[in-house]
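RECORD TYPE: protein structure
NAME: Glycosyltransferase RgtA/B/C/D-like domain-containing protein
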Amino acid sequence: MKNFFAIVFVIFIGLLLYTSALRGEIGNPLVDKGMTKLSKATGPFESSHERAPYALLVSLVERGSFELTQDLANFASPDTVFSGEKYFIIFPPGVSLVAMPFYLLAKEYHLAQLSTYAGMTMFAILNLVLIYLIAKNIFRLSIGYAILSAMVFGFATTSWSFAASLYQHHLTVLLILISYYSVWKYALNMQKWLWTIVPWTVMGLSIWLDYPSVLLLIPVFLYLFLKSLKIYNAKKKLNIIFNFNAYLGILVFFALVGVHLYYNKVNFGSPTVLAQFLKRYDSSKVQDQAVQPPTKQTIEETIKKKSTFSNLFQENRIITGLYTLTVASDKGLFYFSPILILAILGIFTIYRKSNKYRLEAGILISVFLLNLFMYSSWSEPWGGWAFGPRYLIPAMAVMSVFPFIWLDRNNNKIRAKLITFVLFCYSSFISLLGVLTTTATPPKVEAVYLKIKYGFFLNWDYFMDGRSGSFVFNEFVSKHINLQQYFILIYIPLILIVFILLFIVPLLNRKQISKKI
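PREDICTED:
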């Protein structure tokens, strides 16, 4: 029963805090041509990464087509490409397809954009629940520490900013966490092979969301392979039994891949051609919005030139990429969310002090390292104009459990709790600052050239000017209090909850135990 109420509490906190920062305005933009003012800084479409999937969403709902009109292509630019004389978004269509029910649900009430973004928030809340379940059930943390693990990811990392708008990151995290948890459930009872269908389905769905995210599932499938083996000694011989039921879900995977290949063939002319390798369309470089599409020969030459990952992943970028993604002041993970420094201590703790859960911990660590090194070699590791290292949101999720593994096994509890609390206060302050202002913060390399601020210093200027992208604040609260007061209204209860879970709840639990004795 305590577990049930804890999950309800996680959902409640998620709904409350995510809703307070949900980005958008009332209306059905792109239908009533109300998109221009929404594309400015702090608007719901300040980034082309939000505009592109929304443009495809509108095209799917209003026209029943993956092809964009000229107006939609201009709106989604520069994340649009040519295929023949047609325009498409550069991303896989999964985010737009997932968002369709939310768009349709509120379209008649003139709330399509808000409902679409709220749909992504629902997936972010599911991530909080999954992190709680992983911390509580797999790593056997207390209910309080399991809740705190979920809160670290949700509200003390820059993932908060991307739970309030239209990005693929929280969907990717959901697929990674649910596949990992499903394999663990299968390992508890190999006769319940239905759990193994989940990771294979997830692998197929990942292709529709974000191609690099498929690679992040490799550790999960290694976990599945290891758990599908039963090794024992019999008559002084080592016997290995291979459970084929762990691989029945591969049929679902091939079905989803087959449909995606058909999508590529219909829209791009070949099952193996990806939108990322087609010629890009940038409306800002086209005079009077009139464009002469490239010839078929030009497109084919472009595909041949770009249809390789060698220009995306290069090992000579890893050193500078690691610096950018970990400690750099514009995008560094530990600069924006130093609470995750304790995750490193948690990793050492679990391998130094415990023989349990090493495999389960190793799989999460592998996801983190793969995520980190993959994007360190990426051509643009900072992820464009984004708040913090958005490419590392999956890493933030899998690492959020480890600070409390360290805390749980630390001999000096008071000191460890104080360190955790201070780091949470700092990390959540930065996270809330970002989600209430803008996600469009430039990397240092561009900010220096443009002579503007970078990192959360730009967000601070927006904050002091009272410029917010929060729907709740702009529509209801701004009439009564300013943005700084609204910030405090969210921040103080958040850190009070963390203080209570860290210091008060364990004290009450000890008193109850002493009374029973």
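COMMENT: The longest helix spans residues 483-516.
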